[in-house]
Known about the structure:
Number of strands of chain B: 5
Distance between the termini of chain B: 62 Å
Oligomer: heterodimer
CATH superfamily of the largest domain in chain A: Periplasmic binding protein-like II
Number of helices of chain A: 19
Low-confidence stretches of chain A: 1-9
Shape of chain B: elongated
Helix content of chain A: 25-40%
Largest interface: A-B, 28 and 28 residues
Strand content of chain A: 15-25%
Structural class of chain A: alpha/beta
CATH architecture of the largest domain in chain B: 3-Layer(aba) Sandwich
Strand order of the largest sheet of chain A: 2-1-3-10-4
CATH class of the largest domain in chain B: Alpha Beta
CATH topology of the largest domain in chain B: D-Maltodextrin-Binding Protein, domain 2
Number of helices of chain B: 7
Largest sheet of chain A: 5 strands, mixed
Shape of chain A: globular
CATH class of the largest domain in chain A: Alpha Beta
Helix content of chain B: 55-70%
Amino acid sequence: MNIHHSSCHNHSHVKLGFIPLLDCAPFVVAKEKGFFQAEGLDVELSKEASWSSIRDKVAFNLLDGAHMLASMPLAATLGVGTVRSAMQTSFTVSHNGNGITVSNALYERMQRYADSPQDLHNAVALKRLLESEKNEAVRFAIVYPYSSHNYQLRDWLASAGIDPDTDMQIIVVPPTQMIDYLQQGEIQGYCVGEPWNTLAVRQGLGHMLTTGYEIWGSTPEKVLGINSQWANQNPEAHQSVIRALDQACRWVQAAENRIELFALLSEPDYLNCTPEQLSNGPDDDIIAKAAQQRFSGRRINHPSPNYALWIMSQMWRWQDLARPIRVVDVINQVYRQDLYCQALGLSVEDIPSFIKSANFDESVWLQGAIEGRVKPHPNGVIDGLILD
Amino acid sequence: MLVDNEAARAAIVEQAMRDNGYRVIRRLETTKHLTQEVAQSQPDIVIIDIESPDRDMLENMSRLSKDNPRPIVMFAEEDDSSHIEAAIRAGVSAYIVDGMQSSRVKPILQVAVARFREFQALRSELNTVKSQLEERKTIEKAKGLIMKHQHCDEAAAYTALRKLAMDRSQRIIEVATSVISVMELMGDKQ
């Protein structure tokens, strides 16, 4: 087949990176089920070992785009934790999928401070434990510093009055090593995407206390992150990628495709595991379960300006932004709702956008974020944000 | 500090660093306690394979300035991008202590980049040699099978293979592979 490659002039070659996680599924499906090809694309998928590697390779044109943390195009464009480089997103690949899991040992100790199961669920028991046993070092892990995992964990801790920077320690561990670290007592808990919470629970190594969905409501988790220069130079190929992924997301969401999906994902080129590790059978659907992972449906796939505002508020709150920024400008530059709508023939007016509301005042907003007064709407960040 | 699970490459890079007047204070093959190691050794620069899954761990250290008195940032300040791109293409990523002058960083990185490239070239050469060896073995095996099956000598078997290859405009190795699979299939049925 490769022999004919050079003669296919109308097939644009696009190189996309991914991290082997459950939510890379739309990329794998778009490739394997021929959705990319039907859009006239010749897509090469490249498995990457770390989020840093994804970011750097997209920044320096070794990849055109990638499966990215929804916060990553913002962080890269702002130069948070890296060299500044313009990235953008016009498509949200998935919502939710994170969970907070603690070791059995910490769970048992927390139980002594819990008056009700709710105290375990909302970190009140952990707060009491940290106050009473001041000499005990508690260490939690996340997978990447500028991520939903970090900010969800911090929000959860702070809501119980725990200072994540002084009362405990948060470190970074690759997702594949999380369970090992937990088992060896190097960490007592973590916030990570599926399947790593479910696997720890199934193996009897930990307890899942809450999910990102319960902390923030339905929120974008992974996006199609694109090098902005590439996007400007290849508008047609970019739109084709969006359409192919949109179709793939619908396919992934459809429950009747689960068996085929897990078979595809488990292959050595992708997650390299057994299908059984992803599913124990039809009654044990890891996607629909606790973490509420979603790939398609109402208000799932558009680039969400509300989420961009929310995540930048979190960066500001936890001092990841060195200086004040014009958040509205950054959102318009990075979260390209216009391109999403153009590719799929939709209207931008239908996308909820808090920053367009008349009473949005940037400086008041950022001050509220620092004080922890900015909250997601009870239905989730997509439906709006609340400034107390 | 050098973090590399490829012991051979790490040795080459370390030697090159030393030849250029730099000191590698710590060479890690596993990254199990990377955070603690960095805090203890306090290197000026950490060089790590771009494909290492542990890079995200290092990224976090620039956030953790309170735990680590020498915050680490990637590519001190904003170095010119062609320089960084060259490093990334060669598979090098570097974490540099904040405040270290970029004029001092550049030559160190250049040494690392050159040695990474050299190592890659060595490895692909090794792969070529290996696959040539494999090909020769396959052809030998095909010849052996033909000799046994046709009761002919080695030269005749090789000529047969070559003729087949020419007729089909394939490489000898491709023909040899098909011969082996066909012969094995027939062997199974006997």
